[in-house]
Amino acid sequence: MAWREKIPLTPPYETKWMLKRLAMDPLNTVDAANGYVAVPLTMLNNAEVIHVWFSHDEAMPEVVVEGENLTFAQVYPQLARIFGWEQPLQKVYKHFQKTDLAPLAARYQGTPLVLDFDLYACLMKTIIHQQLNLSFAMTLTERFVQTYGSQKDGTWFYPAPETIASLEPEDLRALQFSRSKASYVIGVSQAVVEQSLDLQALHDKSNEDIMKQLTRYRGVGPWTGRCLLLFGLGRQDLLPANDIGIQRGLHTLLQTEKRPTALEVEAAGEQFAPYRSFASLYLWLSTEE
């Protein structure tokens, strides 16, 4: 039986930039004008699309959630984690007001750090995206999901680890994966299936321990690990100093003569702690307008 719940959110909670960013991924079902996001959740052997509507009322933000088979109590913790309903957004804004990030903090005030809908999907997407331009990375990910995933109510679900673990590299080569990337995706999926890589256990580990564990696997380097920490696990104090978007954003913000190096990004980012992940988000947003 279908259910529907309304949840008040603590301001500031800004949906404009969040929805714009979600809509950049062609696999997401987003209607920004109506504040709507379809969330594909797989829990307790149920694959269900949860319908989420955000209000555009900045003074009194709220969200309406609708589902059917999975209960509200079952899906709420995951939705709150994905959309940052419990993130300290007011504290983030006040902290950044005292830093060089103040102009961006004012522009993007209340924009949450939104996570990928599923941890395994985040890992697969990140491995696929590494060392590719964004356009082809999205095309390749779209082929991967539409070939081996499933669609329900018009919304795409990433394939299960068991599906990808059973493939041969040539299967992914047919989608224009490189041979090495095909073997990385399959190898990591096999580790997930065999539980040598327990993704759910990562929630309780430190960033350092997670990076050590992930980078043991072929195809998972520091960039991939940090992306999983940011967009899979929602760690709030990460600034990927080697990221070109971060460097460009800082270059424009600080009006430096040249684009900063990774070491210079790290030094400049010290003032943003303990919310460097939000600084990363706001810098990326500034380059995407």
What would you say about this model in short?
This protein has helices spanning 16-23, 72-83, 89-96, 102-107, 119-129, 134-148, 161-165, 169-173, 179-194, 207-214, 222-232, 244-254, 262-269, 276-288; strands spanning 3-8, 29-31, 36-43, 46-54, 62-67, 150-152, 155-157. With 289 residues, the chain is α+β, with helices and mostly antiparallel strands. Residues 128-288 form the HhH-GPD domain.
What is the element layout, followed by pairings?
Elements: E1 3-8, H1 16-23, E2 29-31, E3 36-43, E4 46-54, E5 62-67, H2 72-83, H3 89-96, H4 102-107, H5 119-129, H6 134-148, E6 150-152, E7 155-157, H7 161-165, H8 169-173, H9 179-194, H10 207-214, H11 222-232, H12 244-254, H13 262-269, H14 276-288
Antiparallel strand pairs: 1-5, 2-3, 3-4, 4-5, 6-7
GO molecular function: alkylated DNA binding; DNA-3-methyladenine glycosylase activity; DNA-7-methylguanine glycosylase activity
Family: Belongs to the alkylbase DNA glycosidase AlkA family.
Keywords: DNA damage, DNA repair
